[in-house]
Specification:
Blueprint lengths: L2 E5 L25 E5 L5 E4 L7 E4 L2 E3 L5 E5 L17 E4 L4 E5 L4 E6 L9 E7 L12 E8 L4 E5 L3 E4 L2 E13 L5 H5 L2 E4 L6 E6 L4 E10 L5 E8 L8 E8 L9 E8 L3 E7 L13 E3 L5 E6 L2 E6 L6 E6 L15 E6 L27
Parallel strand pairs: 5-11
Antiparallel strand pairs: 1-2, 2-3, 4-6, 6-9, 7-10, 8-9, 10-11, 12-14, 13-14, 14-17, 15-18, 16-17, 18-19, 20-21, 21-24, 22-25, 23-24, 25-26
């Protein structure tokens, strides 16, 4: 956690929270506000008397693509909207290059130049209020603070799947990359290096959103020998000091028996159990008597090549015992060597990058609460 917001109970206890379109700003009707950095002990107090002049401002942790904004408590007459403000109304430490514009008669927005906000940096902003209004000396400048989030990523790779149920030679594997901050397509592509038998195997990157990508590893060759591919994910390409390796292993073909290569609980809109086998399953077999899950009375399932998807009507709490019977067969009649039992842990929340951004997820604005 980068920042905590501490609210002090004074006469003014109601809080006004607003979100802007870029999801990075939280506007707070001022009470005593203290920004506490997790890495620094000193607090940054804001005088609650500023409420007569300021109704909101950028705070907390923002993305490198964010803008900085201050909303005044009163309208300013005769301002030119969306035009560069020549007078220096906002200043920053460390310095930030960019331009200031009025987006309405009360709201001043500073738009940093590209790559000006540095990840991991904390900034002190200063609004020169005395250039806008007649104020007492103690209100001549309004100081506020924010921090730029550091880049990070998470990557999840699913097991391989054959391109065709009738041909086990050619396979692909799919993964999902989630970034904390946006990056260029070139930077994302440079995260990945694949090493293995087939030098023509390729990695395709498809954007799903500004910060998430589908990663498909294509043309993975499976042969009569045991094959192994290694996917290297190096965060250096996006400025992250993290490196991971993912192994994709193939048993020789033709197979002598059906094997289970992966079991996991996942969620692509509906929570389910995903079981991956070494080869495509027979489509005409009834799984009802071949699958048992503790604490699950009813479930549905579907087969997609070598993947069995199990959809419990409800999940038990904490953990689930999944039993897979040796009678499960692939599409050429090979079955499992024995029964298998897996203990699956059930989490209330799916693993993900913890995103700390001001104004992203807020309590109900009708109540005064501490923000985490």
């Amino acid at each position: 956690m980068f920042h905590s917001l501490v609210l002090t109970s004074l006469s003014l206890l109601s809080i006004m929270r607003k979100k802007f379109s870029n999801n990075t700003l939280l506007f707070v009707l001022l009470t005593v506000i203290s920004f506490a950095s997790c890495s620094e002990k000193k607090s940054k107090q804001i005088d609650p008397e500023f409420v007569q002049y300021i109704s909101g401002f950028t705070y907390g942790t923002i993305s490198p693509q964010s803008y900085i904004q201050v909303e005044l408590a009163q309208e300013m007459h005769a301002v030119e909207l969306n035009a560069k403000v020549k007078e220096k109304l906002l200043s920053f430490s460390p310095a930030i290059k960019g331009q200031t514009v009025w987006i309405n008669s009360r709201t001043l927005r500073f738009i940093p130049d590209a790559n000006e906000l540095k990840t991991g940096k904390e900034y002190r902003a200063k609004l020169h209020l005395n250039k806008l209004l007649k104020v007492e000396d103690k209100f001549s400048t309004f100081d506020f603070y924010f921090k730029v989030s550091e880049q990070n990523y998470s990557f999840d790779l699913l097991p391989y799947s054959p391109l065709s149920s009738d041909d086990l030679n050619w396979n692909s594997a799919q993964g999902t990359l989630q970034l904390l901050n946006s990056a260029t397509m070139e930077e994302v592509q440079n995260l990945f290096v694949l090493k293995g038998t087939n030098k023509e195997a390729k990695i395709d990157v498809t954007p799903l959103s500004e910060t998430s990508y589908r990663i498909v590893i294509d043309s993975l060759l499976r042969t009569t020998s045991k094959e192994n591919y290694t996917l290297h994910v190096n965060g250096k390409a996006i400025g992250v000091k993290k490196e991971e390796k993912y192994s994709i292993e193939f048993t020789p073909i033709p197979e002598k028996e059906l094997e289970i290569i992966d079991v996991r609980i996942t969620d692509d809109g509906a929570s389910h159990i995903r079981v991956t086998f070494s080869s495509p399953l027979a489509m005409d077999q009834a799984m009802d008597g071949l699958i048992a899950a503790s604490g699950v009375s009813n479930f549905t399932y579907r087969i997609d090549k070598n993947v069995l998807y199990i959809y419990p009507e409800t999940f038990p709490k904490d953990e689930l015992n999944l039993q897979l019977n040796e009678g499960i067969k692939n599409n050429i009649g090979l079955s499992l060597k024995k029964d298998y039992t897996y203990l699956l842990k059930i989490d209330d929340e799916n693993p993900q990058i913890k995103v700390e951004k001001g104004g992203n997820i807020l309590p109900n604005s009708e109540h005064s609460e501490l923000l985490p």
